[in-house]
Amino acid sequence: MNLKDKKLLKAAITAVGGYVPDTILSNKDLEKMVDTNDAWITSRTGIKERRILKEPGKATSYLAIQAANDLISKKSLDASTIDLVIVATITPDIHVAATAAYVASTIGAVNAFAYDLNAACSGFLYGMSTAASHISSGRYKKILLIGADKMSSIVDYTDRDTCIIFGDGGGAVLFEPSTNDYGWEDEYFRSNGTERMSLRIKAGGSLHPTTKDSFAQGDHNIYQDGKAVFKYAVSEMANAAEEIMKRNALDGNTIDYLVPHQANKRIVDATAKRLDLNQEKILMNIERYGNTTAATLPLLLHDYESKLKEGDKLIFAAFGGGFTWGAAHLTWAY
User: Fold this and answer.
1) Which of 18, 86, 89, 203 has its CA 20 to 30 A from that of 62?
2) Which residues, 6 or more positions from 91, have their beta carbon under 8 angstroms from its beta carbon?
3) Could you report the per-residue pLDDT of 191-240, keeping only the tens digit for each?
4) Pairwise CA distance, residues 262 & 107, whole Å
5) Does residue 1 carry a pLDDT above 90?
6) How far apart are CA 141 and CA 139, in angstroms?
7) Domains contained in the chain, CATH given
8) Whether the bond into 323 is cis, omega within 30 of 0
9) Would you tell me the crossing angle of helices 123-136 and 296-304 to the nearest 10 degrees?
10) pLDDT score recorded for residue 280
11) CA end-to-end distance (rounded Å), the chain
């Protein structure tokens, strides 16, 4: 059979897991650390608190492993049957070894290959496309996709523009071939590298290697031009989601839920307004976790899993550093 005549397998999410640390950093706590207040943070971002992984020696891999084990336990999954582990993250344990490989070995996915994916806050969404493509190829049957970030490791807690936003967490989903024709339907992704300095960690790469001065200047912490990021995110998240809905003949009535990256409540609200979605159709947990970067989308699925039902039509949307952004349509399979 000619490959182009072969019907591609549809990839479906068949299980979800999640994990957030126990330590809570509230807006009231931040009032004691920087010049800010609870009312200002809440009105500007929608965030009330975020979780922080404080224990020494615990890194992004710990968040990923906990989320993966939660999924494995709920699914009663034999980890040795997993073919591939992808970890979407911008805070790998170390730079020169894939965090995903360590995660796979630790959870018992001994027959899997593994790699990291970095697309900032769009990382998990891009990873969903990657996982779905691997399933559709027919070569692999079980792919574990994890989004995890220990953002507290790169946040300057004297910078009130960033420390109020980010938190730590991890989420995981299992992709398998669909058994009911529900699953990954369509995607629309874009990027703009000319704006990469608007949301960045300046030092530590080949352009600006690590030096004593780079540490002294705080160049290893995350920085963002808030106005530029907000402007692009509001516009492009909505544009991408609107495009995916048009291409699939969907509207505010036929979509069951919007699953948006949890960067800022105002960005999410603007996207929902463009799509003509009422509040009940918007999945949100930003008030409890803040922006956990690659973990926001799977944590939403984890928190709302009991609310989702077979056949629900979901629109995913994300925007991240790079700039990277996009939207996707998935039909919930269980």
Assistant:
1) 203
2) 59, 60, 149, 150, 151, 153, 154, 293
3) 999 999 999 999 999 999 999 999 899 889 999 988 889 999 999 999 99
4) 28
5) no
6) 7
7) 3-177 (3.40.47.10), 184-331 (3.40.47.10)
8) yes
9) 80
10) 96
11) 32
Q: How long a stretch of residues is the chain?
A: 334
For residue 7, what pLDDT band results from cuts at 50, 70 and 90? low
Tokens representing 244 are 């995916």
Q: Three-state DSSP class for 82?
A: coil
Six token digits for residue 250: 């969907």
Are the beta carbons of 64 and 148 closer than 8 angstroms? yes
pLDDT value of position 52: 98
Which two three-digit tokens encode residue 67?
A: 């989320």
Give, as one character, the DSSP assignment of residue 32: T
| Six token digits for residue 175 | 């992709």
Active site residues: 121, 261, 291
What tokens appear for 263 in the block? 């960067």
Amino acid at 7: K
Give the Cβ contact number of residue 109 at 10 Å.
26
Provide the whole-model pTM: 0.96
Taking the C-alpha atoms of residue 12 and residue 44, their distance in angstroms, rounded to an integer, is 36
